[in-house]
Design brief:
142 residues, globular, alpha/beta, single chain, 6 helices
């Protein structure tokens, strides 16, 4: 498990397994967001299996699959809603953490400066500069 904290309240990770959830809870996370479509992963890592394991530990679990190259406004809205309703720190995961960083940056548009939304994930090698125009446009929409 490789948790990468973008902020004090949001971190991303490559794919996790049910066995990782106890350590995630022990690290202080209260919500886990699955940004990986089931079609990309083995059945033992599908969203519903992960949800059951997370909820058994008292974690909130949100399934918001982001298809590579096809991130939607619905994904952004779902991520924003999950972040807004979280009772504490959030861990989001996908294949590498990149999609979880992208959808976070778009969901935070207007709440943080665009430069910050690009720079924070860049510390971990996630290149979001190509989203600058979309982040700015979402920030203007409010």
């Amino acid at each position: 498990m490789d948790i990468r904290s973008l902020t004090d309240s949001y971190a991303v990770s490559p794919q996790i397994a049910p066995a990782d959830l106890a350590a995630i809870k022990a690290a202080g996370f209260t919500t886990v967001i699955d940004n990986r479509p089931d079609g990309e992963i083995p059945a033992n890592l599908h969203g519903e299996i992960m949800r059951q394991a997370a909820e058994a530990l008292g974690l909130t679990f949100v399934i918001n699959p982001v298809i590579g190259g096809a991130l939607t406004l619905d994904n952004v809205k779902a991520q924003k809603a999950a972040l807004d309703s979280a009772g504490g720190p959030v861990l989001a995961y996908c294949a590498s953490g990149n999609r979880s960083s992208m959808v976070w940056a778009l969901a935070q548009a207007g709440r943080r400066p665009t430069d910050e939304l690009i720079a924070l994930p860049a510390r971990f090698g996630y290149q979001l500069e190509g989203l600058r125009g979309q982040i700015d446009a979402l920030a203007q929409r409010g």
